[in-house]
Specification:
elongated, 9-stranded mixed beta sheet, 9-stranded antiparallel beta sheet, single chain, 1% helix, mainly beta
Length: 278
């Protein structure tokens, strides 16, 4: 926690990108957390998770608590950033990144592996709740807080096939809000049967609160832990030239995850730790 005050900026970023596949299939997760502008720490592996917190209290009434939690696994990302302060500035940033390599194949007679082009609808679902409240004690001015979300879906199956979709929402402590922190991004993906596609999913959450150097002024900013992004499944695969569905298809991944299914919200994280209720 710092006594220095600054203009607040809280951003929540979700990115899904599909880039040209490398020669070797790759998969993994990385979670990075920074609290109160401290050194960023990261955890990596097939599944990654990390938590950091900062607590400050003194006899003059200055108080601060910031927390960042993140978890990443194939097709699923969870992150929470939280800051609660009186008189101080607090912030938490969580970034979760997932990489994987997918290959779509079909036994349909119309499909020639490595030649025939197909298409499907990629879905990035994101779900969360943003809270930002300005607080004050008797004789003090309200502090400030801000929370936001930005989701992006990008893919590239070859140097010539690419697209992106994005949406954003933000909440300020004065009660104003733009957009919604819940939604689904859709993009029609064109690919070649049998050719691998490297995918990357990314989520960054940030929460800020500012008490402007007065212990009678405070703020709470929260991107709740159930804020998440997850793969929405592949319902149908079509032939790109005729738009007719193939009779059958399979999706394999380097991680072993089944990307045909909608991963959905994880109930474990949807009912997770709520800092404001401790």
């Amino acid at each position: 926690m710092r006594h220095t005050c600054h203009t607040l900026l809280c951003a929540f970023l979700v990115v899904l990108s599909m880039k040209p596949a490398s020669a070797s299939a790759q998969s993994g997760a990385t979670v990075c957390v920074q609290v109160d502008s401290s050194t960023t720490e990261c955890d990596t592996g097939p599944v990654a998770s990390l938590q950091k917190m900062s607590v400050y209290d003194d006899e003059e009434g200055f108080h601060g608590f910031s927390l960042g939690q993140g978890y990443g696994a194939p097709g699923r990302l969870h992150a929470m950033a939280y800051s609660d302060t009186w008189g101080l500035t607090g912030d938490a940033t969580v970034r979760v990144t997932i990489t994987d390599t997918l290959t779509i194949e079909s036994t349909d007679p119309a499909v020639v592996p490595g030649v025939t082009r197909g298409l499907y609808v990629a879905r990035l679902r994101y779900n969360g709740e943003l809270q930002a409240s300005a607080l004050s004690l008797q004789g003090g001015e309200p502090g400030s807080a801000s929370a936001g979300v930005q989701a992006m879906l990008r893919w590239q199956s070859s140097p010539f096939n690419a697209d992106s979709r994005s949406a954003a929402a933000r909440r300020w402590s004065n009660g104003s809000q733009t957009g919604s922190p819940v939604g689904t991004l859709l993009s029609q993906v064109v690919f070649v049967f049998g050719e691998p596609i490297e995918i990357e999913l990314m989520m960054t959450t940030r929460a800020d609160a500012n008490g402007f150097g007065d212990p009678r002024s405070g703020g709470v900013s929260r991107s709740r832990y159930q804020n998440s992004a997850y793969w929405g499944g592949i319902d149908e695969v079509l032939l790109e030239d005729t738009s007719q569905p193939v009779s059958s298809f399979s999706v394999t991944s380097a991680s072993g995850a089944d990307y045909r299914v909608d991963f959905g919200l994880d109930p474990v994280f949807s009912s997770g730790f709520e800092p404001g209720e401790q």
